[in-house]
Write a structure and sequence with these properties.
CATH architecture: 2-Layer Sandwich
Low-confidence stretches: none
Strand order of the largest sheet: 4-3-2-1-5-6
Helix content: 25-40%
Structural class: alpha/beta
Order of helices and strands: EEEEHEHEHHH
CATH topology: Nucleotidyltransferase, domain 5
Strand content: 15-25%
Mean pLDDT: 97
Number of domains: 1
Radius of gyration: 16 Å
Distance between the termini: 17 Å
Number of strands: 6
Length: about 180
């Protein structure tokens, strides 16, 4: 694998995708090489927990369009880079919301980030299950703070910035892509 993608979706109160953020990165150094941000119409107007973050920090979408148009563009982007693997934090959620991409290999970042044996920054006094998984505090924001030691970090819940943050988590974990289990 030469390149891979990290994806994040945000949904409406009715569980429809209202935005998609995707970052293409190089497998050898986890550096982003291209990114896209889609806001889906009419779903952006349906309201959701993170509707306020659609344009957070002045971020503008590459496309504000129908889901069908976004998926066509997204598929062309992935194909153009030869991407066959998608990573996401809690990947089952994003995979369920993006069935058009189910033919690709999906991997869950959280499956390494939330486990003591894979995340050396998990404090010794943190409560974990017998499997080594944190009992709480294993969301993107908590894990990002843990790994980066940036206590002031706050997840924006903008699909693009979240995808970039999830890529940073992968880089900070410093595991080879082969360590991530396919879902």
């Amino acid at each position: 694998m030469v390149k891979f993608a990290v994806i994040d979706t945000e949904t409406t109160w009715g569980d429809a995708v209202m935005s998609i953020g995707i970052v293409i990165a190089e497998a050898d150094n986890f550096e982003p090489i291209e990114q896209r941000y889609y806001i889906l119409t009419p779903f952006k107007n349906h309201g959701g927990m993170y509707t306020h973050a659609l344009y957070a920090g002045g971020i503008r979408p590459d496309l504000e369009c129908s889901r069908e148009q976004a998926v066509r563009d997204l598929s062309a982007l992935l194909s153009g880079h030869g991407v066959t693997a998608i990573f996401a934090y809690n990947a089952a959620f994003d995979k369920r919301h993006m069935p058009e991409l189910s033919h690709l290999a999906w991997y869950d970042i959280m499956k390494l980030a939330a486990y003591r044996q894979h995340n050396p920054k998990i404090p010794g006094n943190a409560e974990c299950h017998g499997t080594g998984r944190l009992k709480s505090g294993y969301g993107v924001e908590s894990v990002y703070r843990m790994l980066s030691e940036e206590d002031a970090y706050c997840e924006l819940h903008n699909a693009l910035t979240d995808a970039l943050d999830e890529l940073t988590i992968m880089k900070l974990l410093n595991h080879e892509l082969g360590r991530y289990a396919r879902i």
